[in-house]
């Protein structure tokens, strides 16, 4: 704007200057003319050299020195005496001078305007608008970081990083929540994230549809869920999608979880575009074949995506997982098998299943962020926890909203080893909840998360060791 | 899609430039009229100052034609009125042209956006 203003001013200034110069020249001419008029009638006649064309002169006389034919303007002439001519000249001079003054006034006006615009620009640039933007970038940066980490997740080391990221995110969220001025920008960012998620959801949907065909599940429901999720949560979900295996099936759980997640995500998304990995639901492995299983798997994926609220569904999903562990209808089942094979605990699953890593890392925005912290601690213990987390996330959601954890532990025991780990988590969750406030390994609902956000930084380290112990105990018990 | 949009965009841009030319033309004509108006005002004032003793001439080509003072005054007055009318006409014309050009501008911008979207989509697809 300032540049344009400057240009205009310069342009106008140039024009005004030109006119001013012209007027000045004219006035100079008129002054000379005045002088001539005054001296002319002094003599009756003058001997002069009359110019004949541009190259020749002729001696001659200037007579009727008092008669002057003056141009009035617009091709009108008037014959008058020198005195009258003088009057005309004076008149014209006045006019020219007024024109000059007008031009200079307009020039000053424009210059003032340009200066004002420049000042405004400088002021706006130096003000805190940028601050707000910075805030947004921080959040987005965190998200980006977390997202990246999430993908790496499988490695246990990555988890702690994710936790850190989550902490940051949480902090950012807090900050953002406190700042209302930035909300608009944040909202924009959230909106951007949502859009990204939507895109990712669509991609996943495509994948899922493909998988669904394979599995025979309802991909549409998944996609719808995804869409819901996408709409609600920021981009993190997109990441989850990428990581989530093509479990198209598990719609029922997912749908439920998605619905929950969506709600949660929406809540969370408003504050910050954090990545919400909702471990939701039950461990992936458990439900593979049947709708229930599939749902579980999908729910896990959702967690990856960052849905957090599997509140009610989690409990249900857990139950399903038990008896369908062994069925392999989707790749997830295979994963689970692998996991079991590796360690017998869900640990391997973590590596295999991105959701785990994400869970631990940061994926879940809502509950995961806080849960992530916990998850990381848990991961250290073993993947099993991660599974538990997934399940717990589901359960945690349930815990926050309901108290399904108890149900989950039962489920876990029946499931594969991996599941058992998840189940274990659920058990401690109820106990952990009171002091942790942050959702237990499972992704806590948004509500929980919020609390967690406040506390996670402090709690996670403490909780991690505790959780491990509990989980181990639970697992031991189950085993 | 993108190509069609591009063609549309070009056509609209051409139309817009034409309109801009018209606008500038009418603006310059109006400016000329304004200067003439000012000059005629001066002439009128001068004529008023003159008395019948001086003769008034009108320059028609290379010839200075003697004119009556009253006649000259009347002529100048009539010319003034005529110039005023022309200026008003041009002003209204200018307004219409500006409105049209603004509309066109908006259309252009929207088309541009569409085109960019289409391009973006194409890029994405590719």
TrEMBL record, chain A:
Q: Name one Pfam family in it.
A: Prefoldin
Instruction: Point to the regions of Polar residues compositional bias.
Output: 210-223, 360-370
Q: Does the keyword Nucleus apply?
A: yes
Q: Which InterPro entries match?
A: Prefoldin (IPR009053), Prefoldin_subunit_alpha (IPR004127), RNA_pol_II_subunit5-mediator (IPR052255)
Q: Where is the composition biased (Basic residues)?
A: 149-158, 307-325
Compositionally skewed regions (Basic and acidic residues) per UniProt = 199-208, 375-390
Q: Name one GO biological process term.
A: negative regulation of transcription by RNA polymerase II
Q: Compositional bias (Acidic residues) spans?
A: 255-269
- What family is it from? Belongs to the RNA polymerase II subunit 5-mediating protein family.
How is this protein named in the record? Answer: URI1 prefoldin like chaperone
TrEMBL record, chain B:
| A Gene Ontology biological process term | protein folding
Keywords annotated in UniProt: Chaperone, Coiled coil
InterPro entries in the record: PFD_beta-like, Prefoldin
Q: Which GO terms describe its cellular component?
A: cytoplasm; prefoldin complex
| Coiled-coil portions | 80-121
| One example GO MF annotation | unfolded protein binding
CDD domains associated with the record: Prefoldin_6
Keyword Transmembrane included in the entry's annotation: no
As for what it does, the entry says: Binds specifically to cytosolic chaperonin (c-CPN) and transfers target proteins to it. Binds to nascent polypeptide chain and promotes folding in an environment in which there are many competing pathways for nonnative proteins.
**Quaternary context:** Heterohexamer of two PFD-alpha type and four PFD-beta type subunits. Component of the PAQosome complex which is responsible for the biogenesis of several protein complexes and which consists of R2TP complex members RUVBL1, RUVBL2, RPAP3 and PIH1D1, URI complex members PFDN2, PFDN6, PDRG1, UXT and URI1 as well as ASDURF, POLR2E and DNAAF10/WDR92.
Entry's family note: Belongs to the prefoldin subunit beta family.
Q: What is this protein called?
A: Prefoldin subunit 6
């Amino acid at each position: 704007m300032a540049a344009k203003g400057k240009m205009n001013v310069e342009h106008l200034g140039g024009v005004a200057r030109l006119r001013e110069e012209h007027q000045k020249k004219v006035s100079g001419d008129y002054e000379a003319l005045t002088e001539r008029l005054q001296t002319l009638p002094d003599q009756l006649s003058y001997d002069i050299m009359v110019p004949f064309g541009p190259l020749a002169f002729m001696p001659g006389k200037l007579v009727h020195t008092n008669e002057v034919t003056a141009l009035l303007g617009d091709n009108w002439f008037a014959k008058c005496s020198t005195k009258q001519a003088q009057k005309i000249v004076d008149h014209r001079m006045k006019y020219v001078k007024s024109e000059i003054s007008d031009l200079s006034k307009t020039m000053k006006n424009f210059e003032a305007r340009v200066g004002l615009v420049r000042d405004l620009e400088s002021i706006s640039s130096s003000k805190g608008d940028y601050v707000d933007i910075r805030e947004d970038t921080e959040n987005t940066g965190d998200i980006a970081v977390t997202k990246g980490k999430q993908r790496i997740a499988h490695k246990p080391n990555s988890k702690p990083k994710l936790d850190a990221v989550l902490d940051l995110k949480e902090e950012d969220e807090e900050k953002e929540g406190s700042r209302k001025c930035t909300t608009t920008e944040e909202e924009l960012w959230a909106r951007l994230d949502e859009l990204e998620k939507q895109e990712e959801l669509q991609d996943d949907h495509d994948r899922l549809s493909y998988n669904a065909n394979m599995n025979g599940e309802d991909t549409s429901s998944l996609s719808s869920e995804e869409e819901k999720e996408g709409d609600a949560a920021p981009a993190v979900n997109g990441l989850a999608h990428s990581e989530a295996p093509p479990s198209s099936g598990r719609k029922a759980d997912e749908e439920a979880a998605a619905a929950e997640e969506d709600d949660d995500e929406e809540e969370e998304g408003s504050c910050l575009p954090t990545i919400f990995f909702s471990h939701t639901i039950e461990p992936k492995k458990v439900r593979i074949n049947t709708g229930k299983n599939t749902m579980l798997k999908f729910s896990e994926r959702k967690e990856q995506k960052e849905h957090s609220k599997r509140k009610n569904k989690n409990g249900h999903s857990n139950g399903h997982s038990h008896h369908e562990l062994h069925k392999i209808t989707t790749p997830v089942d295979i994963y689970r098998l692998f996991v079991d094979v590796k360690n017998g605990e869900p640990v391997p699953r973590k590596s295999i299943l991105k959701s785990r890593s994400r869970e631990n890392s940061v994926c879940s925005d809502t509950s995961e962020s806080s849960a992530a912290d916990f998850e990381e601690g848990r991961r250290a213990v073993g993947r099993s926890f991660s599974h538990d987390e997934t399940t717990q996330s589901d359960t945690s959601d349930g815990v926050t909203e309901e108290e399904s954890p108890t149900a989950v532990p039962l489920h876990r025991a029946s499931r594969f080893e991996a599941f058992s780990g998840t189940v274990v988590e659920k058990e401690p969750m109820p106990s952990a909840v009171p002091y942790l406030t942050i959702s237990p390994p499972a992704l806590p609902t948004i509500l929980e998360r919020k609390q967690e956000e406040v506390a996670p930084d402090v709690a996670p380290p403490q909780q991690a060791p505790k959780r491990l112990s509990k989980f181990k105990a639970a697992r031991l018990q189950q085993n | 899609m993108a190509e069609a949009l591009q063609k549309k965009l070009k056509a609209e841009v051409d139309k817009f430039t034409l309109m801009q030319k018209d606008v500038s033309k009418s603006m310059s004509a109006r400016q000329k009229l304004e200067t003439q108006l000012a000059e005629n005002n001066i002439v009128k004032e001068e004529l008023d100052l003159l008395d019948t003793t001086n003769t008034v001439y009108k320059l028609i080509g290379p010839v200075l034609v003697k004119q009556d003072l009253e006649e000259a005054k009347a002529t100048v007055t009539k010319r003034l009125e005529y110039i005023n009318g022309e200026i008003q006409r041009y002003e209204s014309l200018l307004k219409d042209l500006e409105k049209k050009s603004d509309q066109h501008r908006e259309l252009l911008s929207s088309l541009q956006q569409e085109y960019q979207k289409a391009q973006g989509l194409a890029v994405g697809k590719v």
